[in-house]
Amino acid sequence: MNAALLEVRDLNKAFGNVVTARNLSFSLADGTLTSIIGPNGAGKSTLINILSGSIPPDSGEILFQGQDITRYPIDRRVRQGLCRSFQVANVFGHLSLFENIAIPVIALKQKATSFLCSVKKDLEVKQAVDKILDRIGLLDHSHVSASALSHGDRRLLEVGIALAAKPKLLFLDEPTAGMNPVERTRILQNIRDLSAEGEVTFVIVEHDMDVVFSLSERVIVLYRGNIIGDGTPEQVKSNPKVREVYLGEEVA
Asked: Where are the transmembrane segments (predicted)?
């Protein structure tokens, strides 16, 4: 069994009278591709925002690689190796793919490189950027402006930007949102390949059940701030409570 990479202990969060996390406790294993699902308002976004440091919990603990990071700000969590992407792709449209990846590479290496003038002459940076672009299948487009990319390739670029921070745990928020079938197939295969490399543990927040059940090794189901299902895709599909409140006859 893989060791716990992240541990969540008795996590609580409420906004006024609306409880979005109620005594949540679970762990994420190193190398296990996990999806978090649930209906709108289930608490998925709140949970990811808490784990990534965007908002604080009301109570509870978050341990990453055995270290308490509950009160760490976002930048410190990123340096520790916990990163996320967002539902809407965040890329610099006026910069090339190479330059988009180079920014976090330089920041991570804490180099004093003059970005626009000499970044491409820095062999260490260039090799790191090219490796990431190759991993996401966009190396041949390294000098293309990000604004010229298709929606699917923009999402791949965002994954590449996150990979530049060398995460150990990466949350992907709706990675296939708005994609056509070809783009969706491509990014899912890319996630599978990256996960198989074993360097990054992926956690997916996704509404598309075809994506969830074809991609995941483990599925966590949230409903009104509670975990109502947790297991393999087949276990979750057959869970009576999950079927009642979320899946219905969709997987029948």
From this structure: none
204-250 pLDDT, tens per residue? Answer: 998 888 889 999 999 999 999 999 999 999 999 999 999 998 876 45
- 3-class state of residue 7 by DSSP: strand
Measured over the CA atoms of residue 187, residue 188, residue 194 and residue 197, the dihedral's sign is negative
Q: What is the DSSP letter of 3?
A: P
* First-residue to last-residue Cα distance in the chain: 31
Q: How far is CA 20 from CA 48, 152, 222, in A?
A: 11, 31, 10
Closest CA to 96 of 146, 163, 159, 135: 146
pLDDT tens digits, residue range 110-165? 654 555 455 666 788 889 999 999 999 999 999 999 999 988 899 889 989 989 88
Give CA–CA dist 2/128, Å, rounded: 28
Q: Rounded distance, CA 99 to CA 43, Å?
A: 35
Burial of 9 (0-12, 13-18, 19+ CB in 10 A): middle
Residue 92 identity: F
| pTM score of the predicted model | 0.87
Residue 34: CB atoms within 10 A of its CB come to 21
